[in-house]
Design a protein that fits this description.
Blueprint: E1 5-8, E2 11-14, H1 20-27, E3 36-40, H2 46-59, E4 74-76, H3 83-91, E5 97-100, E6 117-122, H4 125-138, H5 148-157, H6 165-173, E7 181-185, H7 186-191, H8 193-204, H9 210-220, H10 222-231, H11 251-265
Parallel strand pairs: 3-5, 3-6, 4-5, 6-7
Antiparallel strand pairs: 1-2
The structure holds adenosine-3'-5'-diphosphate (A3P).
Length: 275
């Protein structure tokens, strides 16, 4: 594993996580009409969303319960697609759940004109930056930040893995009027998970009873996920709160982020909650 990166169309990618050749393969990736595509900028609740979707499908008997956490139906399509995984992507039964962090311009050409359903999960940029900073500090595949101050600056400049936060979210937000795309926010999931689970169920055409919604909610609340992931030695759960940024941002940093927030999001209809 290495922490080397490269840039493609101005976006930084970690070489070991997203080999350049995969970006080319991704463009021509064969989309099926019943694929479910899960899109996240890193550290915005990717594993949380994956787990919720897998459980909804499991309740419908689509995903085998025993595969939860490492389901063959859920494939991160920009990971090195080699050997068995490449074959699995082609042969795995529908509905496939595909996941990626790439900005919209890197998506398979066939996705947006297809009937496949796309879910985009977003989180406020300050908490996302703090979460990425922590992750990168111990990551074997991302460049190690020198300090919080230098990382906060790089994130603001879009000079971080998977590129500018705002380019990413706005690239997808432009598609908001399409009927087969659903936008979710981390903060809404934190504040009312049952409502967001129901929204997802409706969008995916997989309704659940109130009781089963509660089962999904119980299994995907932070403490449950920390336990499940912790037992597997994975570190996809840290604090899991809204507003941890206040423990890291100086007043100047906060002002600079607020200014960029206004510049990039005013008149777009997109907004985030910071607490
Ligand atoms: P923090 O670092 O702020 O704690 P990703 O899966 O995209 O890498 O996102 C990781 C972030 O989501 C981490 O944020 C992690 O703690 C948080 N997270 C993971 N599971 C969660 C859950 N069930 N509820 C709330 N937050 C969760």
């Amino acid at each position: 594993m290495s922490t080397s990166t490269y840039k493609e169309r101005g976006v930084m990618f970690p070489s070991d996580v997203v080999p350049r050749s995969n970006l080319e393969l991704l463009k021509t990736f064969d989309i099926r009409d019943d694929d479910i595509m899960l899109i996240t900028y890193p550290k915005t609740g990717t594993h949380w969303l994956h787990q919720v979707v897998k459980l909804i499908l499991a309740e419908h008997g689509v995903t085998d319960e025993k595969y939860l956490g490492n389901s063959p139906n859920l494939i991160e399509i920009t990971r090195p697609v080699i050997g068995p995984l490449a074959e699995m992507i082609k042969t795995v039964p529908s509905p496939r759940v595909l996941a990626t962090h790439v900005p919209v311009e890197f998506l398979p050409d066939g996705l947006l004109g297809s009937k496949a359903k796309t879910v985009v999960l977003m989180r406020n940029p300050k908490d996302t930056a703090v979460s990425m900073f922590h992750f990168a500090q111990t990551s074997t595949v991302l460049p190690t930040p020198e300090s919080w101050d230098s990382f906060a600056q790089q994130f603001l400049a879009g000079d971080c893995p998977w590129g500018s936060f705002y380019d990413h979210v706005l690239g997808y937000w432009k598609l908001k009027d399409q009927h087969n795309i659903l936008f979710l926010k981390y903060e809404d999931m934190k504040k009312d998970l049952p409502a967001e689970v129901k929204k997802l169920c409706f969008f995916l055409g997989r309704p659940l009873t109130d009781e089963t919604v509660q089962t999904v909610v119980g299994a995907t609340q932070f403490d449950s996920m920390k336990k499940t992931f912790g037992e597997k030695g994975q570190r996809n759960t840290r604090k899991g709160v809204i507003g941890d940024w206040k423990n890291y941002f100086s007043d100047d940093q906060s002002r600079a982020y607020d200014e960029q927030y206004r510049e990039r999001l005013s008149n777009t209809g997109l907004e985030f909650q910071f607490e």
